From TrEMBL:
Source organism (scientific name): Ruminococcus flavefaciens 007c
Designated name of the protein: tRNA(Ile)-lysidine/2-thiocytidine synthase N-terminal domain-containing protein
GO biological process: tRNA processing
Keyword line: Transferase
UniProt entry tagged with the keyword Signal: no
Entries under InterPro entries matching the protein: Rossmann-like_a/b/a_fold, TilS/TtcA_N, tRNA_thiolation_TtcA_Ctu1
Residues in the signal sequence: none
Single Gene Ontology MF annotation: transferase activity
């Protein structure tokens, strides 16, 4: 079974998954020789696929790196915990499952439990990576997560931002966060899972299960609607974060330093120091 799953990455899903995975690694320089990577498994389809891709890259690629496959049990039901371990065994992923009580902590939060959960998980992952001697953490965010984040920032956060392919940790010096599935689309991940007869757990949080429609779900639906009249809308949203013209923004900030277009306007200059005259 595992052999067929491995083959599917360079067979049926060579173009839609494997090539895009490799492109993301190379384009954003996510992995380098000598890296030791904590591959973080949530138990869902995305992180499990990421683990398989990294295994294959480690075995057949030209980059020499080490991996530690770790999963955090935030308070899973026995059924969900067993499902994660069963899938890891089926996929031949040497998974280390570690216990936490994060669900208990987030259940007490009156506001923004998902934000708190993500923050606690992230802190745990960095701490664990450091203890394992890793210099990088790999998360399973994909292309759709990126474009949804862009729109969520604009429509609900009054800001223009994207989900970056890699980041430096602010609190754990020397550790980077990387997203190897950055260019892989969610629909292709679903097809891969279905093709191989794989079933994965979802969020498994009792709080979000009772929330109904989330903001991210609303954005997913909006993108689906836009795609009906513009099939290129996904890529257009993605590329918008690569084609930002600072001269067309009212203001922007770089770290703590904020720039406003009026700062240099009376000098006949744009915020980049060039002439700012209409043609």
């Amino acid at each position: 079974m595992n052999t067929e799953i491995d083959k599917s990455l360079t067979g049926e899903f060579s173009k839609s998954i494997w090539s895009k995975f490799r492109s993301g690694i190379e384009q954003y320089k996510l992995i380098e020789n000598g890296d030791r990577i904590a591959v973080c498994i949530s138990g869902g389809k995305d992180s499990m696929l990421m683990a398989k891709c990294l295994q294959r890259l480690q075995k057949y690629g030209n980059i020499r790196f080490e991996t530690e496959y770790v999963a955090m049990d935030p308070g899973y039901t026995t059924e969900n915990r067993n499902k994660v371990m069963e899938n890891a065994e089926k996929l031949k992923i040497p998974l280390k499952m570690m216990n936490t009580r994060i669900f208990e902590s987030t259940a007490k939060a009156e506001k923004h439990p998902c934000f708190l959960c993500a923050r606690l998980r992230r802190g745990w992952l960095y701490k664990t990576a450091q203890e394992l001697g890793c210099n990088k953490i790999a998360l399973g965010h994909h292309f759709d997560d990126v474009i949804e984040t862009i729109l969520m920032g604009m429509l609900y956060g009054s800001q223009m931002q994207t989900m970056m392919p890699k980041l430096h940790s602010e609190n754990y010096r020397g550790i980077q966060l990387i997203r190897p599935l950055y260019l892989v689309r969610e629909e292709d991940i679903i097809k891969w899972a279905d093709h191989n007869g794989l079933e994965f757990i979802q969020c498994a949080c009792r709080i979000t299960r009772s929330e109904g429609s989330s903001k991210r779900a609303e954005i997913k639906q909006l993108i689906r609607q836009l795609r009906e009249t513009n099939p290129s809308v996904d890529m257009n949203i993605f590329r918008s974060a690569e084609n930002v013209n600072l001269q067309t923004l009212i203001s922007y900030h770089l770290g703590e330093e904020r720039h406003h277009f009026l700062d240099d306007f009376d000098k006949g200059l744009s915020i980049k120091g060039k002439n700012n005259f209409a043609e």
